Amino acid sequence: MSVEHPEDGWRPGWEALGRQLLERGSMTHDWAAPFAETPRTQFLPAVMWPYDQTTEEHVAVDRTADPDGWTRYACSDVAIITQWDDGTRTTPGTDMTSSSSMPSLVMSMLADLQVQPGHKVLEVGTGTGWNAALLARRAGRGRVFTIEVDPTVADTARRALSRANADVTVIHGDGLAGHPAAAPYDRIIATCGLRTIAYALVEQTRPGGVLLIPWGTHFTSTEATARLVVADDGTSAAGSFTQRVTFMRARAQRLAVDAYDAYVTSESKAGAEKSHTTLAHDEVFGTTAWDDNQFALGLRVHDVVHTRGPEEGGARPVWLLSLNDRSWACVLFRDGRDRFTAYQYGRRRLWDEVEAAHAWWAEQGRPGFRRFGLMVDKAGQHVWLDDAHNVIGKFPAASRL
Ligand SMILES: C[S@@+](CC[C@H](N)C(=O)[O-])C[C@H]1O[C@@H](n2cnc3c(N)ncnc32)[C@H](O)[C@@H]1O
After folding, report:
1. Which of 276-285, 313-322, 392-401 has the lowest mean pLDDT?
2. CA angle, 291 then 196 then 208, to 5°
3. What is the pLDDT of residues 234-284, one digit of tens each?
4. Is CATH 3.30.160.690 correct for 260-363?
5. Alpha carbon of 400 to ligand 1 centroid (Å)
6. What average pLDDT does the chain have?
C-alpha cells in the first residue's frame, strides 16, 4: 500500500463535503476547521475500494489510472476499503479488514466524543490514520495515541501521519489491552466493533473521562456506539447508546462459528424436536439488521448467532447456532402462511429463547437502542433498559460475547 502526497485537486471536493456534513448536522461547527485542514486524500492508498451507492458494490479505483475518480471518491461520504483478508491479498477477497469509515460517521462520532484541546486521547483501530490526524488537530500535538493490530496498516498510517505533520504516536498491538504506558486518557475511541469491552480500557480512562465504543452482541452484525463515562471512583464506566453503526470487528472478537456440519449432524437431525410457531419472520427479526429487533433480541439471547439459509422449496430457513455448545434451531418461514415449523436440538432450546426474548421486547413497548444503556466493571458488562437499576442483561467478563 502506498500513500501519495495530496495535490490541490482535492480542495473543491473536500470543501463541498465539509459544507454537506455541516448542513446535514453530521459535523459540529467546532470540527469544521480540523476537517478542512485534514483531507483524507492524505491518508488513502493509491488503489482502494470505495462503496459505490449506485451499484451497491465495492469498486476498485486506481489513482494512477483514474485520478479524478479517485479524488471524487476520497471526497465523498462513502466508506473506502483499504485492505482485504488481513492483507493476504491485494485484490478483493471475502473479508474487509481495514478501511476509512464514512466521513459523516467519523465526524458524528467525534462530536459524541467531545474532545477538548489538551485532552489525551487513545484510539483503537488506526486504519489509515485519518481519524487520528483529526483528533490531533483538536487535542493538540503529542496528545493522541493510536493502536493498530495489523503491522503493515500501522506502518502505512505512521508514514501518512508524519507526512501530514500530525503528531500522533502509532502503536502496533492489540488495542483491546489499551496502551497503559500513556494512561490515564481523557478519551478512548474504538473504530472497530467490540463484543466485549475489555476492562483494561476502563482502567486506563480517568474518572469523568469518556469511552466511545461500537458495541453489539453476536446475534447481529451491527453495533451501536456506547458512550460511557467513567465513575468518580474509576472502577466502572456507564452510559447510553448514541447511534447505530456497523464496523469491522476487532480481530480477536471476530465470530468464529464452527462449520454448520459440526452442529447439524445426522444424529442431531434425527434427535431434533419439532414444533410450530405463529410468529412471522419480520415480526421477530425485522426486515434488516438495522431494525431494533435484532439489537434487542441479542441483549436477551446470549452467545447465539442467527443466519438465514438459502431458500429451499419455498421455505426461507433461519438458523440459530449456540456459541457455547452445539445446540441449534432452524425455523422454516414461508410466504403466505401463518404457521411455521421449528426444529430444535441440544441442551438449549434456541427458538424458545428467541420467542421469549421477543415477547419480553414487545411487552416493554419495543424499545429502540436509545432506551438501553451499558455499564462495564470488573465483573463484566451489564445492559439496562431506561434506568441503570433496571438491568436486563448481564454478560460476565469471562462469557463469550
Ligand atoms: C474501520 S478501520 C479504522 C478506521 C480508522 N480509524 C481510520 O481513520 O481510517 C478498523 C481498524 O481496526 C483494526 N483493528 C481490528 N482489531 C483491532 C485490535 N484488536 N486492536 C487494534 N486495531 C484493531 C483493523 O485492522 C482496522 O485497521
Report:
1. 392-401
2. 95
3. 999 999 999 999 999 898 887 666 667 888 888 998 999 999 999 999 999
4. yes
5. 21
6. 93
Question: How remote is the CA of residue 224 from the centroid of ligand 1, in Å?
Answer: 17
Tell me how far apart the alpha carbons of residues 76 and 388 are, in angstroms, rounded to a whole number: 39
Does any ligand 1 atom lie closer than 6 A to the CB of residue 128?
yes
Residue of minimum CA distance from atom 20 in ligand 1: 175
Flag whether pLDDT at 401 surpasses 50.
no
Average pLDDT over residues 7-29: 94
Q: What's the 31 CA to ligand 1 centre distance in angstroms?
A: 22
The pLDDT score that the predictor gives to residue 257 is 62
* Topology given in CATH for the domain delimited by 8-191: Rossmann fold (3.40.50)
Is the Cβ atom of 150 under 6 angstroms away from ligand 1? yes
* Per-domain residue ranges of the chain: 8-191, 260-363
**154 Cα–ligand 1 center, Å:** 9
Note the pLDDT of residue 55.
84
- Which residue from 351, 329, 328, 368 is spatially nearest to 279, judged by alpha carbons? 351
The answer to whether the CB of 201 is under 6 A from ligand 1 is: no
Bridge partners, residue 143, by sequence: none
Distance CA 122, CA 103 (A): 19
Q: Which atom of ligand 1 is nearest to the CA of 127?
A: 27
pLDDT attached to residue 1? 43
Torsion-angle region of 337 (φ positive above 0: left; ψ -120 to 50: alpha; else: beta): beta
Q: What residues pair up with 224 in beta bridges, in sequence order? A: 215, 244
The residues annotated as belonging to the active site are: 101
- Give the bridge partners for 340, in sequence order: 277
Q: Chain centroid to CA 61: how far?
A: 25
Pocket test for ligand 1, best of 134, 137, 248, 254 (most atoms within 8 A of CB): 248
In 231-285 the beta strands, taken as DSSP E runs, fall at: 236-245, 273-277
